[in-house]
Amino acid sequence: MKILMFTWEFPPYKVGGIASHCYDLSKALVRMGHDVHILTYGDKEEEDYDAGITIHRVSSTQSAPDIVGWSMYLNQRFEKKAIELNKIERFDVIHIHDWMAVPAGAGLKKILKKPLVFTLHSTERGRAGINTPVSKMINDLEWYGTYEADQIITVGKDFCEEVKTIFSVPEEKIHYIPNGVDIKKFDNAKYTTRREWYAGDWEKMILFVGRLTYQKGVDYLLDAIPKVLNEYRDAKFVFVGDGGGLEHYRGKAWSLGLKEKTYFTGYVPDDVLISLYKVADLTIAPSIYEPFGIVALEAAAANKATVGSYTGGLKETIINEYTGLHTIPANSNSIADQLLRVLWDDNWCRWMGRNGRKMVEKNFKWDRIARWTTGVYGKAMGLWD
Amino acid sequence: MRIIMFSGKIIDGDFVGEYVKALLHSFSKSHLVNLVCYDDVEERLSINKNLNIFKTSCVIKGNNLFNWAMIMNTELGRAGREVYECYGFDIIHANDWLTIPVALSMARFAEKPLILSMHSTEKERGFGIDYSGLIHEIEGMGLHNASHILVDNEVTMRHVINDFNIEREKITLLTPFRDKWDERILELYKKLAKVGI
Questions:
Q1: How far is B79 from chain A (nearest CA, A)?
Q2: pTM for the whole structure
Q3: Spatial distance between the Cα atoms of B150 and B182, rounded to a whole number of angstroms
Q4: How many whole angstroms separate alpha carbon B2 and alpha carbon B5?
Q5: How near does any CA of chain A get to the CA of B93, in Å?
Q6: Chain A: residue whose CA lies nearest to B104
Q7: ipTM of this complex
Q8: DSSP reduced 3-state for A172
Q9: Answer CATH for A184-363 from 3.40.50.2000, 3.40.50.150, 3.40.50.720, 3.40.50.1820
């Protein structure tokens, strides 16, 4: 198949998880013999090749007053570029990711009459709520994408139900396909960070990875830390990520008297992150809203257990008491209790980490996910029901 | 000749609305004209054997005019494709920034010349809104990629030349409703589309 994929972020430009998702999925599709073209944002218009993927970058504008205007302009550039590319490549299917690619996807579906597949990684309703005209517009674009797409992919089972309900999507055009983990990236990583930069030898290192936002449950985790430390003093909480809340949450941690027991790294590159997963003792994912929960899988790929909320995708990416422990969402007592259970039992913690690794190897490999994705492409193209 | 014209909503008494209506009336006497325009409702009208109107609507209201217009353009694209399949076209005529995105896409898709009527520029209108910069950039995209540009007055022409660096030869100044302006536009169509030469 000739696949044209739109994503506003693609390595080396990375903000959230969509860039890595598109890169890993594209590599797997190429391994299956498909021809994958990525249309994405760049500082200037250029063409690039990486791992068999053809990457076309177009620039956007400096004049936009907000993110929606910026992406609308970028989508106009996408649309024009795609029409030109299609004259040569004759794409079979267009695959768009999240609301930021919806206008171009919908426009091209109408003009080129190509089947359109839309992957939703999260919704505005879950990320920030529909509180402003901009968030209302983003919500409308998400609906528009589900309306225009021939087939929809969601990355979580619960999330699939959420999308079906809030956007009134018919059962027959929506699918759940999880994210995957590139295990080789973990096994072949060369960079090794020094654990002592983050925690003392005597301390258990508990890793939080993600945007520092309310949605990720950072407030509840910070409230849980004093309760944990009351019973288990030798623990250090390392927060990796930014998302605009770094200063706020660092301030909150310090005001709770946790300056010595927390460490905020800010954004770190992939190689450092992988190394942090490896040197940590366990991972914590206290999210309130989590469409997928990639953190638990990445931790598992590094043989680490995760304590995470029983919500959204984390219901599937953590098997309770086998690859990690579930907590009650938005409940700091539950977080503290479950962390203490793991902290007091090293062997159990390591055993769950090993089980997690087996689970990832079995169920979350990109080659498998790419095969499922081509099944959806075929359905969009009318090759099968 | 087969013409596809894109415009915002046709409002009686509005300058652009009257401009488009006058051209449709004139051209459809001897040529096939399909108008694809914004509207509040979805409607297909066959006025006579030479004139069809594709009124296009969008359920998304948008958080501002610019974002709404960009989504409207995807809907205009659907109607544009319908015209392409049902009637075909030799030339594309767009009016102002509101229809530049779809007109550019259709021109690239069908490989047909695009004439862009710039009735005014955002700079002339005073840059009064926070997304004026985006409108200005869309205007630039249209002006640089159109095959030819029509302007209604000297002021707009100066803006097009000075603010967007468009060469003078690519612009025709025609005062609407005077001096057989419609016939001169038709001549321009024929020249660009290489029809009837």
A1: 8
A2: 0.91
A3: 12
A4: 10
A5: 17
A6: A80
A7: 0.94
A8: helix
A9: 3.40.50.2000
* pLDDT at residue number B118: 97
Q: Where are the domains of chain A?
A: 2-180+365-380, 184-363
How would you write the pLDDT of chain B (197 residues) with one tens digit per residue?
Answer: 999 999 999 999 999 999 999 999 999 999 999 999 999 999 999 999 999 999 999 989 999 999 999 999 999 999 999 999 999 999 999 999 999 999 999 999 999 999 999 999 999 998 888 899 999 999 999 999 999 999 999 999 999 999 999 999 999 999 999 989 999 999 999 999 987 64
C-alpha–C-alpha distance, residues A52 and A36, integer Å: 8
**Could you give the CA distance from residue B2 to residue A265 in angstroms, rounded to a whole number?**
63
pLDDT band at A359 (very low <50, low <70, confident <90, very high): very high
* Residue that wins the pLDDT comparison between A128 and A75: A75
**How many domains in chain B?**
1
Residue labelled with tokens 């021809």: A35
The Cα–Cα gap between A210 and A240 comes to: 6
Name every chain A residue with its beta carbon within 8 A of the beta carbon of B54: none
The domain of B147 spans: 2-193
- Assign residue B20 the CATH number of its domain: 3.40.50.2000
Query: What's the CATH class of domain A2-180+365-380?
Result: alpha beta
Q: Which of B70, B81, B131 sits opposite A110 (nearest CB)?
A: B81
Best residue in B61, B82, B108, B139 for a mutation probing chain A (most A CBs within 10 Å): B108
Across chain B, the runs of DSSP E, i.e. the strands, are 2-7, 32-38, 43-48, 51-56, 91-95, 114-118, 148-151, 171-173
